[in-house]
Amino acid sequence: MNVNNVLPHLHKELLHGMYFDYDDTSTKFLDIITITTSLFLFAPEIKKGQKDLSITIPVFHYSVWEKEKAAAEAFFSWMTDTHVSLQFTNNIPPDTEEGFLLSLPAYQNIALFYDDIESIAGINHQLVCDYIRIPNKNNEKTKQQKLAAFLRKTASDSSEIINIDIKLLNKRKSKTTPAAISLVLAIAAAKAYFNGGTKVYYYQSQKIDADSLNLAKTAHPKTYQLLNALYQCISADMQIETPLLHKTRVAILKEMPKEHKLQIKNTNECLRMKRKTALAAANTPCGICTACFQRKIALAAANSEVYDGFYQYDYGQKIAEITDEHDQQIYRDTLELMETLSQERKTTEEDEYLADDLRSAFACFVDRYNPY
What whole-number distance in Å separates Cα of residue 51 and Cα of residue 46? Predict the structure, then answer.
């Protein structure tokens, strides 16, 4: 796969509205944006077990990445579950910086705000930083606005809040895949560097991948260890921090202050809405897809259902009372999947701890609402 025609100048689009330059260290940060962009572009095309995969990536620091190729390939292999051979070519910085934004460094770190429960839990007055907000465009506009207002009110008065709308991400159905999050983190790290900061905060809880039945890549510490390793390759004083990664969503919900919990109803994770189905109720979370149901059981286990929003099929919905046969089957499949996940025995202590949490939350939900 050759991406030389796509990637050399794509960082300009991704950093639109943010200050950046082409100094020696700066271009190393731009290289990591290009590397994570190439992962994002081709991850959907990479099939598990496919052999002889090769991607060519244009970078400003060819000699650095040739030397550190093993770290970049380890990152790709982990994210795609297959070995990917990387080739680097030399990207030449432009001669002029005309038209670039002028900016004085704020000497503040960056935190991501994804319009989700974990981001709401992570924000606090004590952490003084700037924010990059990634709005959930699948959510109702009024709810997006309420979350924006909450972020502005709760963040420090000195915090800059940047709402980013990346066309490249918008072309994909989900902005929360491991590759997409890695790309956004690389953008945030560049912003932090040009801001005079040294950290990026990303709020993610432990969660199980419904496909692999193991800890999700987005919730796995190794994902962020390998991404941080890329910054070590360029000798950068930059760290991706994940303060909530050791906690389950249930634990996070139990610790959230009431004023934060009041924003939960403004969040949305429904897979049906992400897929933009043509159903009449597509503007309301369905309540029966795996994402909606995992959210429900976590809130129930934390005794926080009162803070949730409305669903097409609410907490007390019985399978037999669903009149739409397709929806009835979706709910039956979701429940069967949750039963499988809760019964699965894990090989690692970390996965087993998460499975125990899921078992407990699922049992709590069934005992309280009995969907059968």
Answer: 10
What residue type is assigned to position 279 of the chain? L
SS3 162: strand
pLDDT in tens, 203-218: 999 988 776 667 889 9
User: What burial letters (b/e) apply to 27-55, b meaning 16+ CB within 10 Å?
Assistant: bbbbbbbbbbbbbbbbbeebeeeeeebeb
Q: What does the pLDDT look like over 17-47, one tens digit per residue? A: 888 889 999 999 999 999 999 999 888 777 6
- 111: its two tokens: 């935190």
Four-CA torsion 88, 190, 246, 299, nearest 10 degrees: -120
Strands 239-241 and 129-133, by their bridges, are unpaired
Using CA atoms, how far apart are residues 90 and 88, in angstroms rounded to an integer? 7
Residues 149, 57: Cα–Cα separation, whole Å: 40
Beta bridge partners of 200: 110, 240
What is the tally of helices (H) and strands (E) in the chain? 15, 7
Q: How many CB atoms lie within 10 A of CB 135?
A: 19
Query: CA–CA separation, 200 vs 119, rounded Å?
Result: 13
Q: Kindly give the residue spans of alpha helices, DSSP state H, lying in 97-248.
A: 117-122, 141-154, 167-170, 178-194, 221-233
Q: Which residue has the tokens 């690389």?
A: 186
Answering whether pTM is above 0.90, one says yes
Beta bridge partners of 88: 57
